[in-house]
Amino acid sequence: MDKEQKLFLGKMLGEIYRMERANDNVACHVRSAHIYALLNGFEHAIDRELEMIGYVSKEKLKAVMDVLDPIWADRERLEKFKGFYDIERKLSAKGVDRGDAIAILTYLKANGQFTEIIDKMDSSHSPTECRTFELSDWDV
Fold it and tell me: Averaged over 69-82, what is the pLDDT?
């Protein structure tokens, strides 16, 4: 991203945050100093915003779906499925770490896909952070 694009992005984000702060019905999660930094082109503030965006490639999404699909398609495998630990090694082998898996499973559940499998992850066969995949108020 070139300097002008980065500055423009910072200004736009700063303006959005400024509007959020001015609206009593909207919670603004950033401090005034951060808004000022964005509006005035402080590179570190813009970089911080870009780092928080996250990125999930279509290949990783497909990899998770490829792991879940055989379980979903086979009633016997679905019945035997106990939790996230059952698929963690397969996901890891496909280059999907736990953080990406959480984001993807949250997306899939919100999209109504593989919900039977995802709901079964709320068990002792899953780590705490991989039990429920509900969208929070901050997610949407």
Answer: 97
Place of tokens 């997306």: 107
30 phi and psi angles, rounded to 5 deg: -110, 155
User: What's the pLDDT score for residue 137?
Assistant: 63
HEC letters along the chain: CCHHHHHHHHHHHHHHHHHHHHCCCCCCCCCHHHHHHHHCCCHHHHHHHHHHHCCCCHHHHHHHHHHHHHHHHCHHHHHHCCCCHHHHHHHHHCCCCHHHHHHHHHHHHHCCCCHHHHHHCCCCCCCHHHCCCCCCCCCC
The CA distances from residue 134 to 80, 112, 130, in Å, are 23, 11, 11
Whole-angstrom distance, CA of residue 88 vs CA of residue 126: 9
Q: CB–CB of 14/39 below 8 Å?
A: yes
Residue 63: both structure tokens together: 């990899």
